[in-house]
Amino acid sequence: MGGAHDAAMDASTKQQLPHDPTCTAPMLVNCVAYSADGHRLRDITVEEISDVLETPDQWVWVGVHEPTEQLLEKLQEEFNLHELAVEDAQNAHQRSKIEVYGDSLFLVAHTAQTVTGKIAFGETHVFLGKRYLVTIRHGASLSYVAARRGCEQSPDMLMLGPSYALYAVLDFVVDNFFPIVREFREELQELEEEVFQDTFKRETIRRLYELKKELVTLRLAIAPIQDIANQLSRQYPTLIRDEVRPYFRDVYDHAARINEATDTMREMVTAALSVNLAIVTVAQGEIVKRLAGWAALLAAPTLLASWYGMNFHHMPELDKPWAYPAMITLTVGICTVLYVVLKRAGWL
Length: 348
Hints:
Elements: H1 3-6, H2 11-16, E1 28-35, E2 40-43, H3 49-53, E3 58-65, H4 69-79, H5 83-90, E4 97-101, E5 104-115, E6 118-129, E7 132-139, H6 145-152, H7 155-158, H8 162-175, H9 177-195, H10 202-232, H11 245-308, H12 323-344
Parallel strand pairs: 3-7
Antiparallel strand pairs: 1-2, 1-3, 4-5, 5-6, 6-7
């Protein structure tokens, strides 16, 4: 995550970046200074951040992936971040929120990514100031290098400052939910086809339950982003430029579409579970009907045979030579009539 950008960084700078030996990506993915006209100036080290911020016509965009406590403390020192926000950024399990700390904002947004065929969720913590943007990724999350490149290719938009960079990050986060929603929709269609198959599969029920659970988790991840985007499009005049507010409304619209699609699929999964239960119940009823039909069909010969199987001397027509063939004929006739009646009734 960030390997593409690392290739462009000079060797001396890369030697100064802290690395986590347990992580395949560097903790400090990007640390770049930009000019007020939206052009990329140069890669900088963490120690140079405060020096860049002292220059009026420059601002900084830092991207961090699962940082250590020491790195966060250094960022707190360079950006003068609030200690409570830094504490939250260190702990990955936070609810989605937006909070004001003096002249800066602290945001938490949940992210999602397909990992080995399954959906994994992560978090992105964001610090927004007048002249800086810091993104901290935890867990499953794609790198924001693509969002950064998109901004750098449009200097006329990036000149709007950190608030536009924040929009690019949130838009990237929300857009990454669309492929996941499509995967869920395709899986739901497959499961719906399996529900209406003749044979009952316990695996289908299990997959429907897991899909519903993932949809609930997805909704918990995307729904708060609507509130965050809504606040950013209306509030914080000192941090969010008016020219950027329409873009946050676009993020809100995308999040709302994903939320609505998630709710619709949850209802469809619930319906599929109910239909599956109804089909199983109907199938069981059909089996009971057939068993009852065959039981009724066998009851007649069983009753007649039990009568003539008793040890009584005086039985109807017992001493007649034609009694045995007549009894067989009567039994077959009764069974035939019962079979025809039950067959027409759909019990056989």
